[in-house]
């Protein structure tokens, strides 16, 4: 952060409106909704240890995984905040089987849709480990003034106009891109304000961290197994063995690797044959951010942002992080 001047997220957005490719003010309004919802969710997460909000609900979410109460809460908070904005025509969420179309009169001119994971890694809440919100913003492709359709959400990641995440960690940080670099804002809890703390983040070309759930080793494709062995080999010339770091909370693992240099991998071959992570609201937004920070994100063979989604909750294998390391891993996959 500039020692001379504390800049709030709101000020930064207004000062940098030209970073948004479309009408001035729209991005500000959209990100304002996300910023507000993030503060509300942050407040509840901070109270999670003392409030009677822990534990699983009776429902399973659409992926058949146990849904924690805070997932439901965060989903409600973000959807309400976005619904209140005239810019948003519809939302898709990890927590909802289908997308929601906003059709109140204030949405009659809405041009944007949001795909989001309101609370990722939520199984970490009850052990006080960082969790996050991930979001992705697109221009709708169907006519303004009509209810949004599935095709509005099934756009390739390269069509994103903005994307970002919030980490509820040792501090709370909101990171976003509009295609003009990656910027991070840390919440000052005493002021309730996000202040610019990380301007124009650049991911190191290479680092020494690899992040993968090695407990699934036996299920991994041979190329991934070979890459893991490569990471563990002794070679001082390339700083190996690398360091293994895996929180099991995607945004936190991604954020650390973006700042320090590293690779995050969630491959095929686990219990989920296509990998675990979802293209629309986990992989695409982080891929946009990775590329904007100078990094790389692929499914091992293809650029994530070029994949044309076929369904809302599609899963893809994920290799993201420092460019040289992702290229290295891809080399092992190709054999
Ligand atoms: P979730 O969307 O159900 O929270 O699952 C996504 C999370 C990611 O945050 C994390 O990277 C991954 O699942 C960890 O999975 P695993 O426990 O299989 O390693
Ligand atoms: Mg998730």
Describe the protein's architecture and organization.
The protein is an alpha+beta fold. The protein has eight helices and 15 strands. The chain folds into two domains: 3-198, 2-Layer Sandwich (Fructose-1,6-Bisphosphatase, Chain A, domain 1); 209-333, D-Maltodextrin-Binding Protein, domain 2 (3-Layer(aba) Sandwich), CATH 3.40.190. Helices cover 28% and strands 23% of the residues. The longest helix has 21 residues, at 26-46. The protein is globular. The termini are far apart. 2,5-anhydro-1,6-di-O-phosphono-D-mannitol (AHM) is lined by residues 65, 94, 117, 120-122, 213, 248-250, 276.
The CATH homologous superfamily of the largest domain is termed Fructose-1,6-Bisphosphatase, subunit A, domain 1
Cα(first) to Cα(last) distance is: 44 Å
The spatial strand order of the largest sheet comes to 4-3-5-6-7-8-9-10
**Quick one: how many beta strands?**
15
Ions, cofactors and other ligands present here are: 2,5-anhydro-1,6-di-O-phosphono-D-mannitol, magnesium ion
Question: What fold name stands as the CATH topology of the largest domain?
Answer: Fructose-1,6-Bisphosphatase, Chain A, domain 1
The coarse silhouette is globular
- Which segments are poorly predicted (pLDDT under 50) over 5 or more consecutive residues? none
CATH class wording of the largest domain = Alpha Beta
Main sheet, how many strands, which sense, barrel? 8 strands, mixed
Radius of gyration: 19 Å
What number of structural domains do the residues give? 2
Counting H and I runs of at least 4 residues, what is the number of helices? Answer: 8
Q: State the helicity in percent bands.
A: 25-40%
């Amino acid at each position: 952060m500039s020692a001379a001047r504390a800049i709030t997220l709101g000020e930064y957005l207004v000062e940098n409106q030209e970073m948004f490719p479309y009408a001035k003010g729209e991005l500000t309004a959209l990100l304002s909704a996300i910023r507000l919802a993030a503060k509300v969710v942050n407040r509840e997460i901070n109270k999670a240890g003392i409030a009677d909000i822990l534990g699983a609900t009776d429902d399973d979410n659409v992926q058949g995984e146990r849904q924690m109460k805070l997932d439901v809460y965060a989903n409600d908070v973000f959807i309400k905040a976005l619904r209140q904005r005239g810019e948003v025509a519809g939302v898709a969420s990890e927590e909802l089987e289908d997308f929601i179309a906003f059709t109140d009169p204030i949405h009659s001119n809405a041009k944007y849709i949001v795909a989001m994971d309101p609370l990722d890694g939520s199984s970490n809440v009850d052990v006080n480990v960082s969790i996050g919100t991930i979001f992705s913003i697109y221009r709708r492709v169907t006519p303004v003034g009509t209810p949004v359709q599935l095709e509005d959400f099934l756009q390739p990641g390269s069509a994103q106009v903005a994307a970002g995440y919030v980490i509820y960690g040792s501090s709370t940080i909101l990171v976003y891109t509009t295609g003009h670099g990656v910027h991070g804002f840390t919440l000052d809890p005493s002021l309730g304000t996000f202040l610019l703390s990380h301007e124009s983040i650049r991911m190191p070309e290479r680092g020494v961290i690899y992040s993968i759930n090695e407990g699934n080793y036996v299920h991994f494709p041979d190329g991934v197994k070979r890459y893991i062995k490569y990471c563990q080999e002794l070679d001082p010339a390339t700083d190996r063995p690398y360091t293994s770091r895996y929180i099991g909370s995607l945004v936190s693992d991604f954020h650390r690797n973006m700042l320090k240099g590293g690779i995050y991998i969630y491959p095929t071959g686990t219990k989920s044959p296509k990998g675990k992570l979802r293209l629309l609201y986990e992989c695409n937004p982080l891929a946009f951010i990775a590329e904007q920070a100078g990094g790389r994100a692929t499914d091992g063979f293809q650029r994530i942002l070029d994949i044309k989604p076929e369904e809302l909750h599609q899963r893809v294998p994920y290799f993201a992080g420092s460019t040289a390391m992702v290229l290295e891993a891809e080399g092992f996959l190709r054999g």
